User: Which sequence fits this backbone?
């Protein structure tokens, strides 16, 4: 996988993960182009697109589009299920995840994705194991009161 | 204030995010962000040292601002500081910031290397994983330089936890993909190298964890896909038992597709079908099991009518590759109606596009007319985004499968009529080239364009084609009063004023051609040229043409005019520029069919020679589609045009370029390179292999140049040199070393050339040539080519000069039967002194002048150098111009230790013989008689230079 983008129906980018280095300018260009292309498509259309020399696989969950760019020899259907597995992980972690969860806890969305995919390859396909790792990391957090005593900005 | 905030609540961050969301306008948002940036900047610059929590919070805010699409130009140092924090969450945010914000070339990477190193060696698995994730996420060359040595150590260390090993393996894979040259180092390479494939790692990760084995009732779909993908990296197994088990597995997968679904959820069918499609890819990759291929095709045929758009899309895509297999091509063709229907009725343009691709891929002579007609009718309503590509495809198919060229001309003119705007120059140039090169279609073309131009509003491209063709061949229809010269001219000129400058320029040239073809139009045309709008045209090009053509037509005599304005000569044939254009547009997707094109084009080329009756016959005959495809499979060179007879006298390898040796390994050693060291060793539609070699004593160095002729990269490009049978390493050593610009880079970019050097040492005499095997993937297909390297014993000849007396004294000494090899053979073309001399010199011997009393004869001397022995050779070639002389039987060889050498030399002199005859003068039935005598010296290490005779 070369990159994954999450964006809203309004075209707002909610998460971007690049597995192949790109210049910032190029990232913006790619994002703009893909968001536009995907949003222009109708609901019953197929989830795959030929785009530049890559294949784009996307799926809409409620108000969010999940969009992955994969290489020529990669499998489209299994990529759809990678997206689905990621959505399941978010859902389980946040408990019926909504776009707001991802906006306010964007860093968690990144951590979960990192636990699931590494360098664009599925690292851990077991839902249990991914969530266990994230929960363990949460446990490592310093006691909450430490934070509440600190004044907010 | 939103309720959502899990784990550690950074209240300040949540407040900020909600402020941003509450902004009513873009300006308000920017104002709020600038306020925050100013705040953070002052905190970072403040005297008071910030605690870890604040630092984390502010870095997180910066990250959020960046993700909103704003540039961040500070805060990097604070993020780097977080990396060295002992608190996991602070470290985690630091790493997140780095991996999101740092570009591969950033200066920052050097700063974070230290922190990463510390975490890698911390033995704290969570810290190690964070560091590994960061390395993989950045994945740059600098990262590889810094950590490619460390990660394999972590991977193989006995005390590394499994979760860390997983991350380490994928991280290493990532670095390997980005910088393969940096990763393969160190003594543990062999322990790691089999883990390098991502597939392997998933295997181990999946096998350690069975609790989440099924995904929506499908067992381990990720693992299955990876394994099937992995198998596609290898050729079909040779072991029958292994292959049998694999076939069984593939059959099971195909069977499962027929079972009722275990769940109605789309996830179930997706996971199941992901495996099925991967299995079909493997079946196509093997391309050796007709039964499986046909079953795969039937399965895809079912999907073509499935209600899921995704499945229809994938089935169309996958069938494209099936269409290029000889075993399933016919099976794919049975779905033509469904595919045509998809082209007409699918609501999604990307699915229609796939349908068009498939029609293109399944097209052959039997259905070309139907498919081209359907594509043409689809073009009328096709989406603008795919029109140009459709036009190119129609143009290519029409040319490729044109049995009668009137159909071809009709098709292209229809293309211009329907989609004139999308007909690129390449397409209309091509139709003109073909009409010029084929005189059987010229009259028809003239008539058809004349009719097409009658339309009141015809496309400018039609005017171009019409102008050019009438200017050349208008005379062929001028007999009909309805298309008399003046009618033709007036028709063309009625379009003139609506056209762009380049088209007008083309029309002016057509006019001057008219003056030559039809003297009766001269006055009218001169008047047009003389008009102010031409001769004083503000465009320089038009003005110049008008002035020059006017002058030319008034000054030059009819003869001169006829010479200057002669009909265009046939165009030299080269790869169709349309094809090149499609390749550029499409990339590897269009590959499968393109490969065939060469063949068809070869035939067309043959036909391009006017009056090339045989070639025209060839292009009219209908080769069975399966033989077409077979040619494509083995990547064998296509039947190239016949070598131009006698074009080169001295270059004995003039044939090498046009008829390269076949790819099949059982072919005899190419005789072409016996006398020559440089040239084209192999060429097909994809690859050209040039060769340059030099030999001294018993050593040789061979440079191979692999040129990618396509615009698409070759991946997994590998070459191996092997020495068959007796050759083994003890006879001839070939040590290849690839010298890529990037070492070990297995990619050959489109249009690029890579060089390989092979060092050769001849240990003793030999007969068989070493084999060169080349493997690479082009598009999806594995290409596998085996060639004989042109290493022959005569390459190790050292020429020896000697006087006549000396020569004959030695000649007489070598009188034992096993010391002589004779060969009498027919010179198939004739004998030309210069050619013969060039060949003999090319053999490596010294050509001794004024030695043989008979001036017709040629004598040569040389010593073959091998590591353990030298073979002195004297050679005499006696051309016998008197035909019909029964040749004396060649001497038989006894099996002595010299036999091998004799045989080797014999076979090589024999193989020289055909190439001795490439001259242009044809005398009937002449004979050449070659006698070679030789003696073998065994090298004495103590007395270099001296030798003893056997």
Assistant:
């Amino acid at each position: 996988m070369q990159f994954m983008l999450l964006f809203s129906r309004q075209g707002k980018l909610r998460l971007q993960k690049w597995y192949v280095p790109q210049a910032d300018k190029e990232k913006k260009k790619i994002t703009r182009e893909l968001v536009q292309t995907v949003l222009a498509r109708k609901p019953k259309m197929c989830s795959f697109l030929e785009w530049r020399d890559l294949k784009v696989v996307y799926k809409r969950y409620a108000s969010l589009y999940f969009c992955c760019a994969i290489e020529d020899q990669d499998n489209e259907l299994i990529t759809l299920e990678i997206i689905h597995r990621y959505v399941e992980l978010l859902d389980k972690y946040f408990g019926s995840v909504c776009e707001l969860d991802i906006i306010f806890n964007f860093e968690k969305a990144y951590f979960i994705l990192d636990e699931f995919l590494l360098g664009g390859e599925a690292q851990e396909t077991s839902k249990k194991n991914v969530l266990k790792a994230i929960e363990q990391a949460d446990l490592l957090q310093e006691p909450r009161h430490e934070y509440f005593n600190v004044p907010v900005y | 204030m939103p309720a959502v905030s899990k784990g550690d609540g950074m209240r300040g961050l949540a407040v900020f995010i909600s402020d941003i969301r509450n902004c009513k306008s873009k300006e308000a948002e920017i104002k709020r962000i600038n306020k925050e940036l100013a705040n953070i900047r002052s905190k970072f610059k403040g005297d008071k040292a910030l605690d870890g929590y604040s630092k984390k919070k502010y870095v997180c805010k910066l990250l959020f601002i960046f993700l909103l699409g704003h540039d961040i130009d500070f805060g990097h140092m604070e993020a780097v500081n977080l990396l060295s924090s002992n608190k996991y969450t602070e470290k985690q945010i630091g790493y997140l910031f780095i991996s999101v914000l740092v570009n591969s070339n950033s200066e920052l990477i050097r700063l974070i290397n230290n922190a990463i190193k510390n975490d890698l060696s911390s033995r704290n698995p969570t810290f190690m994983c964070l560091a590994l994730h960061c390395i993989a996420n950045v994945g740059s060359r600098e990262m590889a330089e810094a950590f490619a040595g460390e990660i394999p150590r972590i991977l193989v260390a006995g005390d590394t936890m499994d979760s860390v090993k997983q991350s380490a393996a994928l991280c290493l894979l990532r670095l390997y993909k980005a910088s393969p040259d940096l990763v393969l180092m160190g003594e543990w390479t062999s322990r790691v190298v089999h883990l390098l494939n991502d597939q392997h790692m998933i295997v181990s990760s999946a096998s350690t964890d069975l609790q989440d084995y099924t995904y929506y009732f499908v067992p381990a779909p990720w693992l299955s896909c990876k394994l099937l993908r992995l198998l596609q990296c290898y050729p079909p197994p040779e072991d029958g038992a292994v292959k049998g088990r694999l076939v069984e597995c593939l059959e099971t997968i195909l069977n499962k597709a027929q079972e009722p679904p275990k769940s109605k959820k789309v996830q179930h069918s997706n996971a199941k079908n992901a495996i099925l499609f991967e299995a079909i890819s493997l079946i196509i990759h093997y391309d050796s099991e007709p039964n499986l291929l046909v079953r795969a095709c039937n399965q895809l045929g079912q999907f073509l009518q499935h209600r899921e758009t995704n499945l229809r899309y994938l089935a169309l895509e996958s069938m494209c590759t099936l269409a290029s297999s000889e075993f399933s091509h016919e099976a794919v063709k049975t779905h033509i109606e469904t595919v045509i229907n998809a082209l007409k009725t699918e609501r999604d343009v990307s699915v229609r596009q796939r349908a068009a691709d498939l029609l293109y891929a399944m097209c052959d002579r039997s259905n070309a007319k139907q498919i081209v007609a359907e594509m043409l009718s689809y073009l009328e309503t096709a989406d603008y985004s795919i029109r140009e590509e459709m036009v190119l495809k129609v143009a290519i198919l029409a040319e490729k499968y044109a049995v009668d060229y009137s159909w071809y001309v009709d098709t292209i003119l229809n293309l211009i009529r329907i989609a004139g705007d999308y007909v690129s120059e390449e397409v209309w140039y091509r139709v003109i080239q073909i009409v010029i090169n084929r005189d059987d279609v010229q009259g028809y073309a003239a008539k058809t364009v004349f009719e097409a131009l009658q339309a009141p509003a015809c496309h400018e491209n039609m005017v171009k084609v019409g102008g050019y063709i009438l200017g050349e061949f208008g005379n062929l229809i001028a007999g009909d009063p309805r298309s008399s010269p003046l009618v033709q001219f007036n028709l063309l000129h009625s379009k003139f004023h609506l056209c762009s400058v380049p088209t007008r320029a083309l029309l002016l040239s057509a006019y001057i051609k008219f003056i030559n073809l039809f003297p009766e139009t001269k006055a009218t045309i001169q008047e047009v040229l003389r008009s102010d709008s031409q001769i004083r045209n503000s465009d320089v090009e038009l003005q110049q043409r008008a002035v020059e053509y006017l002058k030319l037509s008034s000054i030059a005599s009819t003869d001169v005019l006829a010479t200057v304005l002669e009909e265009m000569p046939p165009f030299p044939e080269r790869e169709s520029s349309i094809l090149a254009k499609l390749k550029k547009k499409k990339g590897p997707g269009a590959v499968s069919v393109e490969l065939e094109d060469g063949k068809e084009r070869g035939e067309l080329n043959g036909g391009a020679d006017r009056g090339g009756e045989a070639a025209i016959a060839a292009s009219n005959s209908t080769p069975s589609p399966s033989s077409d495809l077979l040619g494509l499979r083995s990547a064998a060179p296509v039947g190239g045009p016949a070598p131009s007879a006698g074009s080169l006298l001295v270059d004995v390898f003039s044939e090498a370029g046009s008829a390269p040796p076949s790819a099949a390994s059982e072919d005899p050693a190419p005789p072409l390179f016996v006398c020559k060291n440089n040239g084209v060793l192999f060429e097909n539609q994809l690859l050209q292999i040039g060769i340059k070699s030099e030999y001294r004593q018993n050593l040789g160095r061979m440079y191979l140049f692999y040129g990618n002729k396509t615009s698409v990269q070759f991946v997994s490009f590998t070459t191996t040199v092997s020495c068959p049978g007796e050759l083994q390493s003890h006879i001839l050593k070939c040590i290849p070393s690839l010298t890529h610009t990037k070492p070990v880079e297995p990619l050959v970019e489109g249009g690029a050339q890579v060089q390989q050097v092979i060092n050769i040492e001849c240990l003793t005499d030999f007969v068989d040539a070493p084999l060169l095997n080349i493997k690479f993937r082009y598009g999806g297909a594995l290409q596998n080519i085996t060639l004989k390297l042109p290493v022959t014993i005569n390459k190790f000849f050292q020429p020896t000069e000697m006087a006549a007396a000396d020569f004959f004294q030695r000649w007489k000494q070598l009188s034992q039967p096993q010391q002589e090899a004779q060969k009498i053979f027919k010179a198939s073309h004739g004998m030309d002194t210069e050619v013969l001399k060039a060949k003999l010199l090319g053999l490596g011997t010294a050509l001794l002048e004024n030695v043989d009393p008979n001036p017709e004869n040629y004598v040569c001397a040389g010593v073959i150098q091998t590591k353990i022995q030298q073979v002195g050779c004297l050679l005499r070639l006696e051309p016998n111009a008197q035909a019909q002389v029964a040749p004396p039987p060649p001497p038989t060889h006894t099996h002595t230790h010299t036999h091998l050498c004799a045989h080797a030399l014999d076979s090589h002199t024999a193989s020289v013989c055909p190439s001795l005859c490439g001259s242009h003068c044809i005398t009937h039935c002449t004979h050449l008689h070659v006698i070679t005598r030789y003696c073998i010296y065994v090298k004495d290490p103590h007395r270099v230079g001296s030798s003893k005779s056997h």
Notes: The domain at 3-143 of chain A is CATH 3.30.450.60 (Beta-Lactamase). Chain A touches chain B through 68 residues (CB under 8 Å).
